[in-house]
Design a protein that fits this description.
Length: about 575
């Protein structure tokens, strides 16, 4: 660990590249199957370190305690020594050591895969001094750990005209002019050095057209980006190929991962980038799999024409903790089941549908599927309110599902089915009561569990998180864990759909910092107890720390996740929007 901290403290890079500076990717051998490049590490580090949220994070008591640990202190001592020895503070020092960028490349082949880490400096004298300092620090640490009469020394010399440090069989550091190269194998290090010195016949990953094409298709100006040779991974792994092929005919995988596995099957490359946006940060991961090439069965996950949006606007009632909106056309899949599934899968599915239909009054599961809609929204709300006097051992947030309907019969048949199911459950567990009420013109059906009767199958009282509530609102069927949440959703579901609030993305989710803060304050007992026990502080201090953490969470804004079948690529994105 100390050796790693030593190297990181001296070699960690935060560069500012110039046009004349070589690309650090030019030191990564062509055979690399995974490449990561930090285009502007200084911009990345400062983008994070200058955030108010980051500074306030460092001020949280638990984080301050971690920064006061022996390991953290050791790292900062090494960093300070490097600054003093080399005569620059870390931002300027790191510009000198890696102003041209940082690149990592590896050939992925299980354990001990060879890798190369290349740091392109802008100041040869500083790079030479940094190499000397690393040698001094490692030598001193090894001497401290070795017997006094036989101190272990690293192997230091010159290889191919470059300063070289060798430590055992898995640590190699070279310095050629202003370039520093670190590797876990001697062969990989020498191949990188051959590229740095311009040895005839040596080819870098930059000569691989798939890498340059993937970077171009990613677009924008990322702070960092990566490329992975997905084709090679599939060629080398029979199990992965078999999974991607069989996933096309397995109902469960089709429902859960269908369009994602289809994109993985069709694409040869996987690339992604981290971007700074006006509102925060975005991580975009792409597979070059065109939307137009989606097979017909994938109408389950994505509209194959532009007539329908991928997902509807998020539901955001008071106290929203998380919201989710997705496209899932089960009816389309049901119609294509005979051509989409294998013989055994089809047989099992149709038997299951038939068996379930035997318990549905006045309808069949097939009829319900055919009448179901394409858009579904889920919302989680935390208000610290309990549904019963009996408190469950694990309180859950309130939640609701809003699903569109192709046919009003879906809602009518579902309510009939739910009444029958409630009667059956009531006979099994006893005391389940049903209530029907009208609110704002909407008929609401709710069920409550009997608190007076213990249920052996539920020793932790999880059931008391739920007062199942159901309603039909316009062309949507709504299921909620509390009648209050369902009532809060009535005006939201009734709102005309704003096309601008819809998205081409077929799967979206969003978490809310304000909701997380509210949830923490609404149910503080577990956090306060944990703080008291782990930190040995008093109750008042634990409550104060909870308030600090909640205030920090509230300022984090929102974190969005989305999946989009774009015109030229399948895209997975994380989008952090800071609260302004």
């Amino acid at each position: 660990m100390r050796l790693l901290l030593t190297c990181l403290a001296v070699l960690l890079t935060v560069p500012l590249a110039t046009a004349a500076t070589p690309d650090p990717l030019s030191y990564i051998p062509k055979e690399a199957t995974l490449v990561l490049k930090v285009e502007k590490p200084r911009s990345l580090a400062e983008a994070v370190s200058k955030l108010d949220a980051y500074r306030e994070y460092e001020a949280l008591p638990a984080v301050k305690a971690a920064l006061d640990s022996a390991t953290a202190k050791q790292f900062f001592r090494i960093l300070k020594a490097a600054e003093d020895k080399l005569g620059q503070k870390w931002p300027d020092l790191l510009d000198s050591l890696a102003g041209g960028g940082v690149a990592v490349g590896t050939v992925t082949k299980g354990d001990n895969s060879p890798f190369v880490l290349a740091l392109q400096g802008t100041d040869e004298a500083k790079a030479k001094a940094a190499f000397t300092l690393v040698v001094e620090l490692i030598t001193a640490e090894l001497a401290r750990q070795s017997p006094a009469d036989a101190p272990y020394k690293p192997d230091v010399g010159v290889v191919m005209g470059a300063d070289a440090l060798k430590l055992g069989n898995d640590f190699f550091l070279f310095r050629y002019k202003a370039t520093l190269v670190l590797s876990n194998t001697e062969e990989a290090a020498k191949r990188a050095l051959a590229l740095a010195t311009g040895e005839k016949g040596a080819e870098s990953v930059l000569t691989n057209p798939r890498v340059t094409t993937a970077r171009k298709q990613l677009g924008g100006t990322p702070l960092a980006w990566f490329w992975f040779d997905l084709k090679k991974a599939k060629d080398d792994d029979q199990g992965l190929r078999d999974f991607l092929e069989t996933a096309r005919t397995q109902a469960f995988v089709l429902f859960v991962l269908g369009s994602t596995t289809d994109a993985l099957r069709r694409a040869d490359d996987l690339t992604g980038g981290l971007f700074q946006t006006d509102a925060g940060f975005k991580l975009s991961v792409q597979l070059p799999a065109r939307r137009a090439d989606l097979p017909p069965v994938m109408a389950l996950h994505a509209p194959l024409t532009n007539e329908a949006p991928g997902s509807l606007p998020f539901l955001e009632p008071p106290g929203v903790l998380a919201s989710h909106s997705m496209y899932l056309d089960v009816a389309s899949f049901w119609k294509q089941r005979k051509t989409a599934l294998g013989e055994e899968e089809l047989k099992d599915l149709e038997k299951t549908v038939k068996d379930i239909s035997a318990f549905l009054p006045g309808t069949t599961l097939a009829e319900l599927i055919e009448a179901s809609g394409t858009h579904h929204r889920v919302v989680l709300v935390e208000r610290g309110e309990n549904q019963y006097k009996t408190i469950p051992d694990f309180p859950l947030p309130e939640m609701a599902l809003v699903s569109s309907m192709r046919d009003a019969k879906f809602g009518k048949n579902m309510l009939t089915t739910l009444r029958a199911a409630a009667l059956f459950i009531g006979l099994q567990v006893g005391g389940l009561t049903m209530k029907e009420e009208k609110h704002d013109g909407v008929d609401i059906l709710t069920y409550r569990f009997n608190e007076a009767k213990p249920l052996e199958a539920d020793p932790t009282n999880i059931r008391f998180n739920f007062v199942p509530s159901f309603a039909v609102i316009g062309d949507s069927f709504v299921v909620a864990s509390s009648p209050k949440l369902l009532k809060d959703l009535i005006p939201e579901v009734r709102k005309p759909i704003d096309p601008k609030a819809c998205s081409a993305a077929v799967w979206r989710a969003k978490g809310y910092g304000t909701g997380a803060a509210q949830a923490l304050k609404a149910r503080p007992e577990a956090t306060i107890t944990d703080t008291v026990l782990n930190q040995g502080v008093g109750l008042d201090e634990a409550k104060k720390q909870l308030e600090q953490t909640a205030a920090w969470l509230a300022k984090l804004g929102t974190l969005g996740v989305s999946i989009d079948h774009g015109e030229t690529a399948f895209k997975f994105e994380l989008n952090w929007q800071l609260k302004k």
